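Hallway conversation turned thread

IA: we were arguing at lunch whether anyone had actually written out ABC transporter family protein end to end. Turns out nobody had. So, for the record, here is the sequence (272 residues) and right after it the structure tokens. Reply here if something looks off.
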Amino acid sequence: MTRTFDPQANAASHAPALELKALHKRFDQTEIVRDISLTVQTGERVAIIGPNGAGKSTLFDLISGRHAPSSGQIWLGGDRIDGKKPFEINHKGLSRSFQISQLFPTLSVFENLRCAMLWQQGLGYAFCKLLASQTDTNHRTRALMQRLQLVDACDTPAQHLSYAQQRALELGMALASDPAVLLLDEPTAGMSQSETSHFMTLIAALTPGKTLLIVEHDMSVVFGLATKIAVIVQGELLAFGTPDAVRANPLVQQAYLGAVPLASCADQTVLA
Ligand SMILES: Nc1ncnc2c1ncn2[C@@H]1O[C@H](COP(=O)(O)OP(=O)(O)OP(=O)(O)O)[C@@H](O)[C@H]1O
């Protein structure tokens, strides 16, 4: 399977890593995403924030191919991808974190990661056992497992991992294809503060140079990781800029962050 998105060639060509142009999504008569345009440069880490029901996950569904937009365009490193199937978009270099329910519960950590790698190479799950001796894949799987700090759980079935370990495995499944652009939907949801802090360090360590989009409610994660923040309210992009610019934006203060003292925004935990 050919990968058409080469991050180095893309950076050299100055094409944005991801570009959304006048994106709309309607479900029946209800418009959920309204005219969103956004340009993300290679290597940027963009946090997408907004109240519950603002349309953040729907935006991810459009970018990752789960839903086709009603109108508008999506470009990945110079390739138009709107309306393409999720696997086509994945093979072009964009990955979305798997949900825990999409892990193989009875397979071990190692087998889950190896399956994700084989799938990325265009080989189905049925080949996994036949290819157990495939040295290169096994070597890369072990290396990824080490970076995820899951070596001790190598043989543990996914269903028996702790919640934080499952989320780490989920992150690893998304990274198995070595994507240039990674979408993470609330990666730290349900974690304790110390787990969140550990997981943020893990994300940063595993994604140097990658373009990251994170839907997140936890402001310590947003202000700790993001180089840019996009604020979505009622399906519209209210603001997009650096954390400082967004923090100072009166529209954001008024419409989303409300009474929270923005000078100490990074200290806030959950704003939604
Ligand atoms: N397949 C669908 N059909 C109809 N309505 C949908 C569909 N998917 C999402 N919606 C609606 O779109 C709106 C936005 O949902 P979405 O999950 O994108 O919001 P969100 O910003 O991610 O919210 P949260 O922060 O709570 O996860 C909601 O009102 C939801 O009910």
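OS: looked through it. The pocket of adenosine-5'-triphosphate is lined by residues 27, 32, 50, 52-58 (CB under 6 Å).
IA: good, adding that to the notes. The longest helix spans residues 193-206.
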